[in-house]
Amino acid sequence: MQLQTLNPQSLNIFSNDRDILRDLFTYLDYVGEREVKRMTRTNDIPHTDLKRLAKLLDIEPPEKDDWMYTAPHWMNFIDNLALRLQLVSYDTKGEYRGYSSSEPSFIENYIVVNTSNLNKFSELSPARQEKHLVETLIHASPRRDYDSASNNEFYQYGSFSSLDRFNGWGAATGVMPTLKFPEVRKFLLEVLKACPAGTWVSTESLIAYLKANHPYFLIPEHHPKKDRWGKEIGRYDNFHESKDNHSTDRKTVPANAPDAFERVEGRYIERFLEDIPLTMRFVEVGYDPNPYTGLLPTRGMLKAFCVTERFQRLMSEQEASPKVTVQPNFDVVIESDFYPAKIIRQVAALGEQVSSPQNGHSVYVGIFLLKKAAVAAEQVKNPDLDVIELLKNLSGRDLPSNVQIELDEWVGHAEQFTLYDGFSLLEMADLPIEAEKFIAEKISPSLRLVRSPEKAFSMLETLGHVPLRIQHPAWELAPIAESAQSVFPKESAWIEAQKTAKQVKVSRVVTISYRFPDAESFDAIQKTLAELRCPFQSDPVTRIVNIQQKEQTRFDEAVQKLQDIFAIEIE
Q: DSSP per residue over 206-256, as a string?
């Protein structure tokens, strides 16, 4: 297949920077740890939870009037995708409360994680997970699973769609309900597979290729000639053009027009490219920056596209197994073609992430630092866990000797303390006998660790006591009221401590920026910097890497390591 290449320099380039697997697992972790009750009237996730999720995903939350926008917000897309994958469940039908109800209500509608399905999904390799996502999107609508013939890219928007759509008028009749869009999407993905990765290709040349070689990929040559009511079906009767979006003077695309294929199938190609391929980061797209002046819906505005390497790796079954390296400095480096959620969870439980890749990179590279407290705590949580054996299995080799010696000592610390979850500390001199059943451990004559704190608190109130409940933040003890009898610090002591001025030292940091000319060298330098554990920040859109001046030596070392691949010249 010979397609025309195109220089995208004059186009408006858009590249999706969201990692769909990462965001999906972040969503599942969030709803699994919290009892998220959907809103009664709209069945949406409450705005408070959306704001928390947005912070975790590093994305702007949806606006309150998000329903006014044509394209679904990314977080709503992820929420709906988890439901399609059957990884979560909740009521989607609702109930009508009374004869006057025009819309259903959703009462006590909590999001429940389907643990069995999630475990099966998590056991798949990252590439198989990505393919499962693609299959799900292929067989579902770009937005929601409505039982409608308008359930396709002609009419509905993906999260990153910017082109307008056809008017859905008459979509339930004619040729539209007979079209098999899952098969169409699979065919077009196979066509994209033949495009060279990293090369910008003219969309017009792709449309011309399909017109010459596969003119019936969308609408069969021998499509039904009559609908179920006996009305004759024309090939392009469902597709109308107009001068503006509000015009009632819509005209059907003539089937015998020389450019009929471009006006229907061509428009579909443009809208398909900015849906599943763009959502899955299979392509980047380039739009015409000039205003559109022809008949609506627009056509010829998506001028070019570029197939990504990750798409080619996925489609050609060339996925390499995730690589885990345990380094002598206790860093665990994870490299994977696709987001390795299971490995990340296992390693993250043993330390903290010190280098997080930017969304949109073609290869995942993450660095985690093993921590003594985290290893010991995880050992307490899972007594059968063999941390050393786990890391050996993940890396496929023996650990550095110093790391293994330290891990042996850290695991031993697990026997020196116990973690309590869901308990409270009760301070009381004369404990009533009724409270004995709540005592988990006696710490001192007046301090005890109690289970079921809510029930214990209610019991004390029932017995005529006036207990005071204090919620301590994670980083310090909250001050106690002056009138309370307690061994903990009072408000006066806390206020006195605040009067002491804190000495603040401000450090000046000089940052150096390097702009790389292409994605290949940009990704290579980031991977090398991560391996050298050189802190950096990067912007995938501008391909700029920022380092602190004090890290210049390590940056130079990274450049030197790449000299066999790239002749890097710094201007």
A: HHHHHHHH-TTSSS-TT--SB-TTS-B--TTTT-EEBSSTT-S--EEPPTT
Bridge partners (DSSP) listed for residue 202: 304
Q: In the beta sheet, which residues pair with residue 546?
A: 513, 537
DSSP 3-state assignment of 202? strand
How is residue 325 annotated by DSSP? Answer: E
Tokens of 292: 């559109």
The CA distance from 165 to 271, in Å, is 8
Per-residue pLDDT, 14: 96
Cβ–Cβ under 8 Å, residues 86 and 69: no
CA atoms within 13 A on the CB side of 127: 16
**SS3 label, residue 138:** helix
**Cα(250)–Cα(240) distance, integer angstroms:** 6
Average pLDDT of the chain to the nearest whole number: 86
Strand partners, 544: 515, 539
- Provide φ and ψ at 251, rounded to 5°: -120, 135
Residue 524: closest CA among 362, 368, 366: 362
pTM of the full structure:
0.72
The H-or-E segment that residue 394 falls in is helix 387-395
